[in-house]
Amino acid sequence: MQAKAAIQPLEEQSSTNWWVVLEVLAFAALAFGSRLVFAEITWKFSGPISLLFTLIVLTLYLRTKGMGWRDMGFVRLSDWKSRLLVLPKAGFVFLLFIGGAALVILGGEQIGFVKPEGLPDGVQARWGDVEGNLPMLLVWLAIVWTSAAFGEEMFFRGYMVTRIEDGLGRLRGASVLAVVIPALIFGFAHFYYQGLFGFVMTGMIGLMLGIGFLILRRNIYPLVLVHGAVDTINFVALYLGET
User: Fold this and answer.
1) In the prediction, which pLDDT does 229 show?
2) d(Cα 170, Cα 173) in Å, to the nearest integer?
3) What is the C-alpha separation between 43 and 93, in angstroms, rounded?
4) Alpha helix ranges (H) inside 113-216
5) Angle between helical axes of 134-143 and 221-240 (0-180°, round to 10)
6) What pLDDT score does 9 carry?
7) pTM of the shown model
8) I want to staple 199 with a disulfide (CB 3.0 to 4.6 A). Which of 160, 187, 210, 230 is the partner?
């Protein structure tokens, strides 16, 4: 009986469970739907608030499945060596990030798909008051390192990539679907205020981050570090009026 119980989780993990894709899409729908609700209260902060709400619901749901965020990439860094290795791993993720962005920019130029001049109207409406406004910069930097860096990586990479890859088990191409589906959802999550170019760019970045997540054996900390650092640089540039 004990041997059978020990083998059972492996048997479950090796099967193909397409319902897990619907589960992921359902939580994506919860995030997008709650954003519409919170937008009636505060459009500017509806994204971070809806993501926090979704993560709370998701945490409770994972507990019913006997899982937690350690199963989704928040591995325990038990010694100094593993902690120090986060930096070079983050450097690797950053190279993937740059490569994905360059592919969109350079590849887009070849087919006439280029970034529009100036900031998109949605970006201007959401972050236009950051320029020269130190208190507002600090507010958004706090959001960057909570909702964006940790929150988005927890949701789009930690949860989505892990659940889809595990759910599809030994299906050929499971790892590909596990990074492509979340990347498309990640891009769509930014479409409403960044437009089509933002959808493609963030989708490609999401793809690269997903690939990095799997290559690094589901260690999410390097992704969090890169995500937070890049967004911090962007907001400082906005504050200085250099965008």
Assistant:
1) 97
2) 8
3) 31
4) 121-127, 134-143, 160-168, 174-215
5) 160
6) 43
7) 0.89
8) 187
